[in-house]
Amino acid sequence: MLNFENDPHAFRAFITAHQGRVYNAILNRVQDVKDAEEITQDVFIDVFRRPEAFRGEAAVGTWLYRIAMNKCVDHLRKKIRRNKWSINGLWKLSEKEDEPAAGDFFHPGIAAENREKASILFKAMKQLPEKQHTAWMLSEMDDRSYKEIGEIMQLTVSSVESLLFRARQNLKKILSGMYPGEL
Amino acid sequence: MNKEKWIEEILQVTRQVKQAEVNPYLATRVAAALEKQPGTAVAGRLPMKWVYLSAAAMILLVALNVMAWSRPLPQKQSTGIQSVMQEYGWSNNSVYSANF
User: Fold this and answer.
1) Nearest Cβ partner of B7 from A15, A118, A176?
2) Lower CB density within 10 Å: C or N end of chain B?
3) Contact A173, B3 (CB under 8 A)
């Protein structure tokens, strides 16, 4: 069982061991460096405050991912609500509701020559339904197995397979609409 | 470039994403946030029995106040002036019109 109340050094070591993967997963999901840092911080605060929530049913890393993904979904929903009721948002009521308003996202882990393509992909990913987006991101960008994705998202392996299949189909459809024409 | 090839190229970008660097001060920031947030700090220091005792004292004070305000005030007995008036045979307050 996890308990860091009386051992700040162990907690620091725990953060150091997991921060990279947690931060990157959050960054890929929310597509904003500042928000990703804040959410990562919140994840570890939650771990410190409620270590009893970890019941050992899955690996610690999987449990951390689950907290992180739930926090990302909450964050994105809040962002959509905020944008919807902001002055700018009121002018954009005709736009799709499940798409948070944001500029182009430049992932810090992408080489300069791929930035343009990555920006198109991230824009397309934003248009996917929540679950498809999370599953796609965990599988393609984070290299997680179907079993791990199932544990993180609390789904069966066959549901994950089907989510990923639909995510790929939808992404192709969205990208097809973004095709700039013969270059 | 045809559409299918272009789409496949875009989808392949996910394979070329490297891990982004984490803020090196993340652990320090988490520790600072835990120190700053009152929920943890106060709950850690203040024993619960004092919280319950303070709450009980407040409730008692409010109850006493309510009781004091709801009780009717006792009639004042202004015997001093009334007895002087009776002595001089004044039945009302017409002191200034009396003939001495």
Assistant:
1) A176
2) C
3) no
